[in-house]
Amino acid sequence: MSTQFADEWILKALTPQKLRLYLSHKGWSQVQHRNPNIVVYTKQDERAGDNVSIVIPASMTLGDYPRRMIESVRCIASLSDVEPLYLAQQLAYWDRDVLRMRLMTRAADTSSIPLEVASALIAELRDFVGFAACAETDPKPFFVKAGGIAKEFVEQCRFGHTFIGSFGLSVESPLPLDPNMPLPHVPSERPFSRAVMERIAIGSAFMEAAIEQDSLDPLIKNYATGFNANMCEKLTEIIKAADDQNLQYAVIWSPEIDTKSGLVRKQEFALREPARAALTEAAKALHKEDEFGETIIMGKVTVLRSDQPPLQTDEFEFAERAITVLWEPQKKQYVNLRVALPLNEYRQACDAHKNGKRISITGRPTKEGKFWILANAHSFSVVG
Predict the structure, then answer these.
(1) How many whole angstroms from its chain centre is CA 303?
(2) Which of 43, 83, 150, 230 is the most buried (most CB within 10 A)?
């Protein structure tokens, strides 16, 4: 990112009022100064062992406002050990956390991507944050299906504008903040939306560790605080949708709420082939963490599929036939489970579907790719 672009972003996103509010919230104190064109703040700097001062322009109408505002932000960023652009982004998004994803396309035109690619990326990114909300509510190795909390959380999120330099997507997660809070030195309550974004960042750090160590352990052993199988799968789908081009993402944190101790704030995470391989294998392993054993499945038939008519003749007896059963493996979570059936049982399933009756069958529910199937199925019956 060029210095010129960073400076342009600072001037576009910030105002003296935002900067003053930020300094007040971070424990800086305003001191009187006889020059009406500037505002001076001071704070004890532990590293320097003395007070340090920041001078910011009092108004955007001043002739030297652009230069002074850029100097002020750069000085504050230096004292905070962050990049000026990152600080500017934090101040611009003071009331929300932002998940930003960049696609470093190989095409000559970096201002746009194919519509199909954009549509797929947005859909998978939506599901990714939805499953993050599910995992934060109930930290399981995997969910057979996203629960209602995913829909509620996604509905609160906003899709932000793209940004210059590469094609980018922004998912903004609003925080329930009062513009006059928090007070200096008063810890802020950690809202659920912040916890979800922290889970994404923590899981990303575990993903990087898994790649660096060439071991799945960081991902698998830390699913309770990081990525579960569903989140791993959705990131894999995002990589696939981007056609294996260079994807990077990062979280921009609202400065109003402190992040968890030790949480990586500035790192940009890469989604390339090593990440895809690690995420794919971790998802498989996490599914086995809570794999279903022999299970009695009961539910209504929703789909019937047969390569040949279900006639009792030698010609059609060995055709491939399967049904889909609406199954509730976890409370209020339904999943469509595919079951292969022989001819006689398939015909009974047809009658059950026609008459609105439930069926019962025993087997081992297994996830293959995006679909759930029933392996080793037996003991089929219509139960009414």
Answers:
(1) 32
(2) 230
Q: Is residue 41 part of a domain?
A: yes
Q: Which helix (H) or strand (E) holds 336?
A: strand 333-340
What range defines the domain where residue 23 resides?
Answer: 3-92
198 shares its domain with 337 = no
Residues 300 and 369 in one domain: yes
pLDDT class for 211, splitting at 50, 70, 90? very high
Phi, psi of 303 (to 5 degrees): -140, 140
**CA dist., res. 282 & res. 219, Å (int):** 7
Question: For residues 339 and 361, what is the distance between their CA atoms, to the nearest angstrom?
Answer: 9
Residue/partner pairs of 353-357 with CB below 8 Å, 24 or more apart: 353/300, 353/301, 353/302, 353/304, 353/323, 356/300, 357/300, 357/382, 357/383, 357/384
Chain center to CA of 125: 6
Reported as half-sphere exposure (CB side, CA atoms, 13 A), residue 371 has a value of: 8
- Give this prediction's pTM: 0.71
Q: Are residues 107 and 197 in the same domain?
A: yes
Cβ-proximal residues to 382 (8 Å cutoff; 6+ apart), any chain:
348, 349, 351, 352, 357, 358, 359, 360
Q: What is the dihedral of CA 229, 235, 240, 243, to 10 degrees?
A: -160
Give the mean model confidence (pLDDT) for residues 78-85: 84
Q: How many domains does the chain have?
A: 3
How far is the C-alpha of 160 from the C-alpha of 172, rounded, in Å?
6
Please give the backbone phi and psi of residue 195, each rounded to the nearest 5 degrees, phi first. -60, -35
Q: Does residue 63 share a domain with residue 130?
A: no
Q: By C-alpha distance, which of 140, 101, 130 is closest to 289?
A: 140
Would you state the pLDDT for residue 1?
A: 46
User: 368 and 280, same structural domain?
Assistant: no
Same domain, 130 and 254: yes
Residue 320 token pair: 């491939």
> Residue 186 domain-assigned?
no
